[in-house]
């Protein structure tokens, strides 16, 4: 049978620790969700800003060839052809590209769908019924802007939601644009945020785990200090009050008898008076050692107060409890202590009471009966066990 102390006096503190951990985890999850939303929004805006910057760069390339036309180094046809070739090859990222339409709606550049070059888009509607070129033309001539629509991906006929930033190059009356597929953008953002938040979450979890382990260690240490007697390291009377409900519940589901053994040193006051309190403390420590040595793993040894001790445990029979008490009494009677140049010994008396789990008696009543049996042992001459 295992000792139940870890399920009793540490439980309230552990519950508080678990509650604190849950609150911290909830806070972390809330932070990660907030971080994900904020970071994903930021990345989305950043990708849009990049697309707009790409268009600015594309306009700069077109302007360069236009300047060559103005300086008469190239004809307009050659300048436009070279500008289109440059933008046609200026792909970026996984599927980023530039497209160009003229003012009549004809496709001039479409790197991923060259079969569309030369076609007129004026009356071309996407899967939602939106006339794409008309939207491009309206936004571009307003100074540039975003247009949402659906468009096929590379090597597919299925249209996907897309947004494009489109600008107007007035000297050649061109519409120049580049776009982002929304599902690809969200997927890229998701994995980017997941990687970043994953690192943060992992760091947080390591921190929380380490904190919980450290706190749990100190909680255990503080719990031990709060229920252990400083002199003998035995459990205290306070601990007995906390362990009783657990013991009673365990008593109901086992075939063992819950017993209380009340122990009191005989004439201990004279030990302190004659040999001093230091020697008295030494005696108490040795008594505690004898109790611990004879107690089972499932038993609880306590210093009840002064020179009084209590052993609580489960026994197969009443005689098993008597044998335990007699073993402790006998070993204590054989102890020898030195005080200056003289040697002395001590004896103890014990009273035993079995708790009846089928009655309405409280365990406090069982302790009182054990105390009464102790009194009987005292009045019968001491250095004996009464049951």
Write up what this structure looks like.
The chain is α+β, with helices and mostly antiparallel strands and 387 residues long. It folds into two domains: 227 residues, 2-Layer Sandwich (Beta-Lactamase); 152 residues, Reverse transcriptase/Diguanylate cyclase domain (Alpha-Beta Plaits, 2-Layer Sandwich). It has nine helices and 13 strands. The protein has a six-stranded mixed beta sheet, with helices on both faces. A five-stranded antiparallel beta sheet has the order 2-1-5-4-3. It has a two-stranded antiparallel sheet with strand order 10-11. A hairpin with a 2-residue loop joins strand 10 and strand 11. Helix 1 packs antiparallel against helix 2. It is rod-shaped, with a radius of gyration of 44 Å. The relative contact order is 0.10. About 2% of the residues have low confidence.
Provide keyphrases for this structure:
single chain; 387 residues; Alpha-Beta Plaits; six-stranded mixed β-sheet; 19% strand
Topology:
Layout: H1 11-70, H2 76-89, E1 99-102, E2 107-109, H3 132-141, E3 145-152, E4 159-169, E5 174-181, H4 182-227, E6 235-236, H5 237-252, E7 257-265, H6 268-275, H7 277-294, E8 300-305, E9 308-315, H8 318-333, E10 337-339, E11 342-344, E12 348-354, H9 363-379, E13 385-386
Parallel strand pairs: 6-8, 12-13
Antiparallel strand pairs: 1-2, 1-5, 3-4, 4-5, 7-9, 7-12, 8-9, 10-11
Helix pairs in contact: 1-2, 1-4, 6-7, 7-8
**SSE pattern, N- to C-terminal:** HHEEHEEEHEHEHHEEHEEEHE
- Reading off the top of the CATH hierarchy, the class of the largest domain is best stated as Alpha Beta
What's the average pLDDT?
85
Number of helices: 9
Name given to the CATH architecture of the largest domain: 2-Layer Sandwich
Q: What is the CATH superfamily of the largest domain?
A: PAS domain
> Structural class from helices and strands?
alpha+beta
Largest sheet geometry: 6 strands, mixed
Number of strands: 13
Distance from first to last alpha carbon: 24 Å
What Rg is obtained from the alpha carbons, in whole angstroms? 44 Å
Helix content: 40-55%
Number of domains: 2
Shape label: rod-shaped
Strand order in space, largest sheet = 6-8-9-7-12-13
Unreliable sequence segments: 5-11
CATH topology of the largest domain: Beta-Lactamase
How much of the sequence lies in strands comes to: 15-25%
């Amino acid at each position: 049978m295992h000792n139940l102390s870890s399920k009793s006096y540490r439980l309230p503190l552990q519950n508080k620790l678990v509650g604190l951990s849950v609150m911290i985890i909830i806070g972390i999850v809330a932070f990660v969700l907030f971080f994900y939303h904020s970071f994903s929004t930021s990345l989305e805006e950043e990708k849009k800003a990049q697309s707009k910057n790409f268009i600015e760069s594309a306009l700069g390339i077109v302007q360069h060839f236009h300047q060559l036309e103005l300086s008469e180094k190239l004809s307009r046809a050659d300048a436009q052809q070279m500008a289109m070739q440059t933008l046609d090859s200026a792909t970026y990222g996984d599927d980023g590209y530039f497209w160009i339409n003229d003012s009549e709606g004809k496709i001039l550049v479409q790197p991923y769908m060259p079969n569309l070059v030369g076609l007129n888009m004026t009356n071309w509607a996407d899967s939602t019924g939106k006339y794409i070129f008309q939207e491009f033309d309206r936004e571009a001539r307003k100074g540039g802007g975003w247009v949402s629509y659906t468009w096929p991906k590379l090597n597919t006929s299925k249209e996907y939601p897309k947004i494009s930033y489109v600008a107007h190059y007035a000297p050649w009356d061109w519409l120049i644009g580049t776009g982002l597929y929304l599902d690809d953008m969200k997927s890229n953002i998701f994995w980017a945020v997941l990687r970043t938040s994953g690192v943060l979450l992992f760091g947080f979890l390591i921190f929380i785990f380490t904190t919980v382990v450290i706190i749990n260690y100190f909680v255990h240490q503080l719990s031990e200090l709060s229920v252990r007697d400083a002199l003998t390291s035995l459990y205290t009377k306070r601990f007995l009050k906390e362990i009783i409900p657990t013991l009673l519940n365990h008593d109901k589901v086992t075939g063992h008898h819950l017993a209380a053994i009340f122990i009191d040193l005989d004439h201990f006051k004279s030990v302190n008076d004659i040999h001093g309190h230091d020697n008295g403390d030494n005696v108490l420590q040795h008594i505690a050692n004898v109790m611990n040595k004879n107690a089972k793993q499932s038993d609880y040894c306590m210093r009840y107060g002064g020179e009084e001790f209590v052993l609580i445990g489960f026994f197969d029979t009443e005689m098993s409890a008597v044998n335990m008490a007699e073993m402790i009494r006998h070993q204590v009677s054989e102890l020898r202590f030195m005080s200056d140049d003289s040697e002395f010994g001590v004896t103890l008396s014990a009273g035993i009471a079995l708790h009846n789990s089928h009655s309405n008696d409280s365990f406090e009543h069982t302790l009182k009966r054990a105390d009464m049996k102790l009194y009987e042992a005292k009045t019968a001459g001491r250095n004996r066990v009464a049951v």
